[in-house]
Amino acid sequence: MNEIFGNPVLAKALPEAIVETLQMVGISAFFTVLIGLPLGVFLHVTAPGGLRPMPVTNRVMSDVIVNITRSIPFAILMVALIPLARLLTGTSLGPVAASVSLSIGTIPFFARLGETCLRDVHIGKIDAAQVMGSTTMQVINKVMLRESLPALVAAATTTVVTLVGYSAMAGLVGGGGLGKLAYNYGFQRFDVTVMVVTIVLIIVLVQIIQLLGEWIARSLDHR
Amino acid sequence: MITVTDLRKVYRQGKKEVVALDGVTLSVPKGSIHGIIGHSGAGKSTLVRCLTLLDRPTSGSVSIDGTELSSVKDSEIRTARRRIGMVFQHANLMDSRTAAGNVAHPLELVKTPKDQAQAKVAGLLKLVGLEGFENAYPSQLSGGQRQRVGIARALASDPDVLLCDEPTSALDPATTDEILDLIQDLTTRLQLTVLIITHEMNVVKRVCDSVSLLFKGRIIEHGALQDVAGDLESKLARALLPLPPSESLHGSLEDGPVLEILFAGDSAKEPVITGVARHFDIDLNVLAGSVETLGGQQFGHLRVQLDRNADFEAVLDYLHARGISAKRATSDAPAPESPVQYLATGEKK
């Protein structure tokens, strides 16, 4: 105990690191859902056999997404996007700048997950809504999104957990946060205490996110 | 009143053309229930999709009370759809909405004021016998109750036509009867025009006023229930009044001619069999029989073997003179592609 509380690095840098990590995860989670969800809806609705099939656009979008998520390792994507971060936020350092590349890294991931959730809405429900005289937007809002909400929350939870992992990586290239703390002190200076504390904190953070997400998803699910 | 005229739907599968509907014509008057029966692949689903405009027919027309539906512009398609209420096999309710929420769904789409919608939903739930279940989610309801919610939802937009696609195929026999009774009751009460698409003969027997037999995209037989049931030659009669396969053609009166008899209505009440026996002084052996009340009228379908010495033609004449259809029984093993072979004929087990 004394080792933890007496550690000067932890006393001085830990609170700031926690705040930075939460900032990175919070900001990028917000933008990921904000942009990723409509993108997922678009992918689903424009797919062949969807509500508004647009085969070519759909194909192109799918390919772009697959290439971002599958082909480019996140570590490289993050570094490559530093100029964009500077353009958007005016700086290449700190949690806000890191959120740019974090968001761009996870938006396609969440869009794919979201698309899968929407695809799982039973086709009979879509038919029923259309026969009632729903517009396309009404089908999307009142049926697709509403019926897949529990699954979407679960998908968002998975995405945020992924973001926690990515944020640690972002810490190494100027994002700050727990990742930077663990690397700079735990790794470079062989401070085992710092390393252990950061790891435990990240595990706790992921657990909280996971439990919260599951709880929300369950309370929304009436099946 | 719904009128379907020469409806055709052709799908393209690569270079091949698949004719799903090959000129379907039918008309159902207001306040009556019409059954469309056929086994899977007959074109039932395609017909439903064309009637609800989920698919555009290739040619032909669908009209309700003289208003053409099949040729409306895309922008008017939603208004047109609201004239048809649809009941699905699995109810297709929204799991995230309560019973009341599901019934209110069609009302929300046209921005019905809240208090007005609420009153209407309460009324509809009462109409289908679900008072007190307003706040229940579909997962908390039984299959029959879910289907009742589905019916209430279908009626929410005050449709002229109720289209039921296999409404009871996922329900047990008792619940099936309840739901069919409800549909029948609503038909007279609200003066609806009802189309029931089904593969169960039992549904037709129980509620339909008229029936069409759909086979390979065509209606090959149709008419009022009493008319088709009373016609010995009709395929529907064989399905409505089924007899066991004719392996049992040979009874105890070996080699005697076998007769198939179909009597309907008043003639069903006369003692036909004993009449023949007495008149010709011969023995008769009933090999198989099926008796049903269809559309409020009694029908009997019998397979009877006569004494080998009986004058077959004279017996036929005797029966025909009394308005009873009769013919020599043929080995009636249905052809492999018989339109009625796979139809569920009896009660569900």
Commentary on this structure:
The complex is a heterodimer of chains A (223) and B (349). Chain A has helices at 2-6, 8-46, 55-71, 74-80, 82-89, 94-119, 123-131, 136-147, 149-175, 178-187, 192-220. Chain A starts with a helix and ends with a helix. Chain A contains 11 helices and no strands. The model of chain A has no long low-confidence stretch (mean pLDDT 90). Chain A has one domain: MetI-like (MetI-like fold, Orthogonal Bundle). The longest helix of chain A has 39 residues, at 8-46. Chain A has 223 residues and is an all-alpha fold. Chain A is elongated. Helices cover 85% and strands 0% of the residues of chain A. Chain B has 349 residues and is α/β, with parallel strands linked by helices. Chain B folds into 2 domains: 2-229, 3-Layer(aba) Sandwich (Rossmann fold), CATH 3.40.50; 246-328, ACT domain (Alpha-Beta Plaits), CATH 3.30.70. Helices cover 30% and strands 28% of the residues of chain B. Chain B is built from 11 helices and 14 strands. In chain B, the strands form 3 sheets. In chain B, strands 6-7-8-3-9-10 form a 6-stranded mixed beta sheet, sandwiched between helices. In chain B, strands 2-1-4-5 form a 4-stranded antiparallel beta sheet, covered by helices on one side. In chain B, a hairpin with a 2-residue loop joins strand 4 (59-64) and strand 5 (67-68). The model of chain B has no long low-confidence stretch (mean pLDDT 85). The interface between A and B is medium-sized, with 21 and 26 residues.
